[in-house]
Every structure is written in C-alpha cells, then in structure tokens.
Description:
Elements: E1 4-5, E2 15-16, E3 20-25, E4 28-33, H1 36-49, H2 56-66, H3 70-77, H4 81-89, H5 97-112, H6 116-129, E5 133-140, E6 143-150
Antiparallel strand pairs: 1-2, 3-4, 5-6
Helix pairs in contact: 1-2, 1-5, 2-4, 2-5, 3-4, 3-6
Amino acid sequence: MNKYPYTKCGLPYVWLEDGFExxxxxxxxxxxxxxxxxxxxVIASVIITSSNSIRGQExxxxxxxxxxxxxxxxxxxxxxxxxxxxxxxxxxxxxxTPVDRLIRYVYAEVKEYPGRQQRFCDxxxxxxxxxxxxxxMSRKSGKWKADYRSMDY
Length: 153
C-alpha cells in the first residue's frame, strides 16, 4: 500500500503508512482516518519534543489541537492575536525562540491538565484589566485561604 499524504492536518510533511481507508463517495474520493484524535496527539507530541524549530504551520496545528482561537493563544504566549496570525501565515519560517519554547510548554501543560488554558487566559485577561492587588491570607477550618483585594493608593 502507498503512503497517504496527510495534508488535511496542515502539515505537508506528515505521511500515513496505514490507519487510513480510501473510498468513493457520491462527492468523490474520501479518506477515513482511524482514531484521528489519537493521531493528532501523537503528531503534536512529535512536534513539541523535536529539536527542530517550531514554524508557523506547527503553531497553527498545536493551536488547533488545543482548540483555542488565536487571541487566546496570544494571551497565553504574551503576544497579540495579530502576532499569532502572522506566525501562522509565515508557515515555514521559525517563530521567535521564546514563542517556540512557550508553545511547547503550554501544549504539554494543557494536555496534561485539561481546562488550564481557559484558567490562564482568564488570569491574563484580569492582569491587563486590574490594578495591583494585595493578597490577604486567612485560616478557616484549619486551611489557609487567599483573598485578592484591590489596593488603594
């Protein structure tokens, strides 16, 4: 059997040796990929553990795998939505090293602890909107609790 160029994932260098079925549909030739979600997790793992620089096409793939919009990824990485769009549009150019390292970490962290990306996006959103807070600690029922309060200057 021939290898199948899995360009639908957005990465022109991914080929499938097996795990796919080509069939005819009323709309033309179709392809069924076995366990596509697992395939994407493995592709993402290869990307984030590779010694190759991450390029725009990998940023788009990882962002898509995380299921977040450009604006949210920008907040997680400390850049604008427009910067993410620019990285993604320059498909084969390596992204800046700090962005490369952060996207690897963010992907690994979020996949290990689902739901964290929204929590961090919320935190980063509040960071931009609010003044500095003081942290007031109290002990209730034998446990420490933190309360954030705006500081009046």
